[in-house]
Amino acid sequence: MTGGGMMAGATGGDGCDHRGDGGCGGDSGCDGGCGSDEGGDGVDAMTGHDEDRLGDGEGTPREPIRVLVVDDDFRVNGIHAAYTRRIEGFEVVGQAHTAADALRMAAGLKPDLVLMDQYLPDGNGLDVVRDLLAAQDPPDVLVITAARDIGSVRGAMKLGAVGYLVKPFGFPVFAQRLAAYRDLRERVESFERDAEADQVEVDALFGAARPGAAPTAEAQPGPESLPKGHSAPTFALVQSVLMEARRDLSAAEVAQLTGVSRPTAQRYLALLVKQGVARLDLRYGATGRPEHRYRSA
Which residues of 182-211 are buried (b: 16+ CB within 10 A; e: fewer)? Predict the structure, then answer.
């Protein structure tokens, strides 16, 4: 399948571009991987290995769902792209950082799904959604933003977005949403174009877009649930770096990967360990104090 969202019932599109609105941990921070792409136009260089992709591995391989990631923060954009590559059945065909780039790349790349943040340097993401969905062969759009006001949520719903994901979040939540979208898309495509659905089938289709087990506030800390002096975007960013690393890291390495200071990284790592999200190991050398190493629990 190439190009066009499932709501359009069309396929098609080619080409590749690489450019990138907000992150899962606020509009400039995200719980993402250490391997973010900070590139401009061009082919996306980050590719995942099959053994690292999240999926059941069953059935006949389908053409991957083509995804355009829109985020003005280069690090966050790369995190969302890396997350997407980890999920079976998806490929990132481009990354945009502005509203203008998003519209241009969507027209040229014909993605199936656009991950759209709301806050862009040259416009509002919802205005981009409106333009995208007004096209002849529109993609599906999943809004990813820190905006929690009901006006934004209602606006996305009225425009026809297939989902609305509020930052901050971790990879499990992101993967759950994309897997639900993939399942819904497969269900829709299993019907003949002129087929009719009864109420049971309609309910099943609408239910497929809604992940069953929503994470609790305790599992995904928000700004209100974190201790005083801690930022939700930074918490999510440090957590995601540990998740993506797939090995233990020192506080200095986490600081380098996230761009925060070493004391800040140490403080958030200690909080992650306290909450049971990360594990602390001690590495003993020949002399001196043991080195603290952290990994995702």
Answer: bbbbebeeeeeeeeeeeeeeeeebeebbeb
CB 165 within 8 A of CB 183: no
Biggest CA–CA distance in the chain, Å, is 74
Q: What are phi and psi of 102, to 5 degrees?
A: -60, -45
Distances (CA, A) of 223 to 39, 51, 252, 277: 30, 34, 25, 17
Tokens of 6: 């499932």
**In the chain, alpha helices (H):** 74-85, 99-109, 125-133, 150-159, 171-189, 199-208, 232-245, 251-258, 262-274
Distance CA(86)–CA(73), nearest Å, equals 20
CA-to-CA distance for 142 and 100, rounded, in angstroms?
A: 18
**CB neighbourhood size of 73 (10 A):** 25
Nearest 10 degrees: Cα torsion 202, 204, 210, 214: 150
Higher pLDDT, 207 or 212: 207
**Contact criterion met (CB below 8 Å) for 24 and 69:** no
Which has more confidence, 224 or 144?
Answer: 144
Res. 43: pLDDT tops 60: no
Element (H, E) at 114: strand 113-116
DSSP β-ladder status, 113-116 and 140-145: parallel
**Among the ranges given (40-49, 51-60, 134-143, 222-231), the one the predictor scored with the smallest mean pLDDT:** 40-49
CB neighbour list of residue 284: distance below 8 Å, 6 or more residues apart: 290, 291
